[in-house]
Amino acid sequence: MPTMTRRQFNRALLGSAAAFALPRMTPAETTPTLVAGQARVRLAPGDYPETEVWAYGGTVPGATIRLPQGGRVTRRFVNELPQASSVHWHGIRIENAMDGVAGLTQAAVEPGDDFLYDFTVRDAGTYWYHPHNRSWEQMARGLSGALIVDEAEGAPDVDMDEVLLIDDWRMTDRAEIAEDFGAIHDWAHAGRIGNWITVNGDGAWSREVQAKARLRLRLVNTANARIFSLGAKGLEGWAVALDGMPLDKPEPLDRLTLAPAQRVDLLVDVTADDGDEALLVSSERDGDYALAAFPVRGAARTARLAEPGPLPPNPVATLGPLNDARRAELLMEGGAMGGMRSAMMGGQMMDMRDMAAAGKVWAFNGMADMDETPFIEADRGETIRIAMTNDTAWPHAMHLHGHHFHRVAEDGSLGPLRDTLLMDRGETAEIAFVADNPVDWLLHCHMLEHSAGGMMTWLRVA
Ligand code: C2O
Ligand code: CU
Is 132 in the pocket of ligand 1 (CB under 6 A)? Predict the structure, then answer.
């Protein structure tokens, strides 16, 4: 018998119908699976055909994984996609080997192969999972899901707790995913902006509520590149957490900006009357439009509940003295209408035209691909400051893996803990965090065309 690699073996196995009847030989049979594969789902209204997507478990979004704080997530990821993939657990302060970054923390999982993810969660809050290999294509095709960690104690009292994954699709007029993933125009501009927005895979998501009910809404921006500007009608309340991390003090809800990968937890009361409709709206260029509708039927109570207190804090280490902290600088350059003319690629200086031909149009500190040496080498437990300058004509959503950070204002005051920071064109921002999680972590723009196009670096915590 000719020797087969394990990958070929798995492929052969998947290819034969009889294989499905065989019992699994490995002790993994009790482990729940997370299967990525092709599926057909209804994304567009009924007069359009269904859309062929890539999905976790056949649904868009994938099933919400929900567990109590301190609990353990165990999933055998099975790749039934036609290309290699991996699963990243966005925002989880995770063991490095479970971070799911293909090429940094693990090898990409080839078609027909599998990978066991197994980790515990220290922090409560709203997180999510998505591929971290060709994510600019794989997420545009539909791969993402929510990961919700319930507070061990002190969870707020609510009448309803809903996860709303907000996504942006680029579709043809036949409701097929447009397959222009590598379009260099998108890569050099705002990223892949779509033409169809869904909440939980539904273009007209709605949920019945009662007047004066208190809702916890967990909003997640799973779009490749679209920044949402959100508002509410007939819902009043507070933002209580950002990127999973509780705010010290609930913030009265006004308009809010949600960049790719960012999350916000809202505690809102239904102030619309019985028979009316409350709305979550997105402001787009052509006006406000309803993302999610909450038709009001009946009343939960006669008067609004009292203002909520903050959520219980997560066990994140306190920053050391900032004056003594190691400080690094990150210059973000490139893109259309920027001043960058050349950058290092593969150890060589290349001009923009040659870079673009190789799909690179951005650079961090003059480098358009990931260097073999980390951008920062931190001692474990050290406080790190990174001063970032967005010297481009575009906004960027800067995401750090394995840690949450504070923004440091010019007067030294600290912003809320986040894992993804939106920086406007021309803006500078300094972040600080305790580098207490070994070993190798990415820092990149979460506009997926931007990270693939050069806005990605990594740091090492010894
Ligand atoms: Cu949401 Cu590098 O990840
Ligand atoms: Cu960007």
Answer: yes
Cα separation, 158 vs 160, whole angstroms: 5
- What is the sign, positive or negative, of the torsion defined by CA atoms of 455, 456, 461, 462? negative
Cβ–ligand 1 distance for 448 under 6 Å, the answer: no
Q: How many CB atoms lie within 10 A of CB 370?
A: 17
Which domains are delineated in the chain? 6-150 (2.60.40.420), 160-299 (2.60.40.420), 322-461 (2.60.40.420)
Closest listed residue to residue 151, CA positions, set 267, 311, 264: 311
Which pLDDT tens digit goes with each residue over 154-168?
999 999 999 999 999
Residue at token pair 């893996």: 401
Ligand 1 pocket, 88 CB below 6 A? yes
**pLDDT tens-digit profile of 46-81?**
899 999 999 999 999 999 999 999 999 999 999 999
Q: How far is ligand 2, taken at its centre, from the CA of residue 382, in Å?
A: 27
To the question of pTM greater than 0.90 for the whole model, the response is: yes
State how far the Cα of 106 lies from the Cα of 115, in Å rounded to an integer: 10
Pocket of ligand 1 contains residue 444 by CB under 6 Å: yes
CA distance 329 to 351: 23
